[in-house]
Amino acid sequence: MHWLAQVGLAGRERAMPHQLSGGEQQRVALARALAPQPALVLLDEPFASLDLDLREKLGRDVRAIFKANNTTALLVTHDQHEAFAIADYVGVLHQGRLAQWDAAYRIYHQPRNQSVANFVGKSRFLRGEVIAGARVATAIGSFDIDSAYLQQYNFAAGDVVQVLLRPDDILHDDDSAMQAVVAARHFRGAQFLYTLELANGEQLLALVPSHHDHAIGESIGIRLEIDHVVVFPSQL
């Protein structure tokens, strides 16, 4: 009874399997897994068959239950949002190897290599050139390179590099002199995901509140808000 209460099923002890919803069945499975008080619980795509809202709610509940019982869990999932929401640490596998094991924030904002950067989240890369003072020059300005990447790759002035930019690095600003053309747009309810083209043909992504409804081909003002300037050696 204790474990059913833990997973939010108090009062459903006598329910038959066919009387339980998909989410309730998952909660029963979780209670059964926790009852022996294991040191480690393996969850293999546990929410894959559930609709999005239920997956998000159950994910929050599962995290809270594991925290409350001080239980370690290993979650296998292809859903990055699910991994970020539930896990304290995330491991990214690439070609059968562990490419990075880190906090979710660092996986997204400070990926160890270009494979992780490409796999996690949405991004675009701009061509850059390393200049004096441990900075990189791009079509949209020059920036201080994150010290971790300077140490990892030992960049020198003149090196051609790839600069990672996430959609949240680019802000829409009607008053900005920096302009980009809307090349594509994807409506996401509260936001548009815009693909923006610079004058030199390079492209960026930007998440913009959906009341800023711009047409393809329209020029809009942008400004940058980059906390981590992530730079990789050029693959060209």
Task: Describe, in plain words, how this protein is organized in 3D.
- With 236 residues, this protein is α+β, with helices and mostly antiparallel strands.
- It folds into two domains: 1-87, Rossmann fold (3-Layer(aba) Sandwich), CATH 3.40.50.300; 123-233, Nucleic acid-binding proteins (OB fold (Dihydrolipoamide Acetyltransferase, E2P), Beta Barrel).
- The protein contains seven helices and 14 strands.
- It has helices at 2-6, 22-34, 52-68, 80-86, 104-109, 114-119, 147-153; strands spanning 40-44, 72-76, 89-94, 97-103, 124-131, 135-138, 141-144, 160-165, 170-172, 179-187, 191-197, 203-209, 219-224, 230-233.
- Strands 7-6-5-8-14 form a five-stranded antiparallel sheet. A five-stranded antiparallel sheet has the order 9-13-10-11-12, with no helix packed on it. The protein has a two-stranded parallel ribbon with strand order 1-2.
- The longest helix is centred in the N-terminal third of the chain and has 17 residues, at 52-68.
- It starts with a helix and ends with a strand.
- The model has no long low-confidence stretch (mean pLDDT 88).
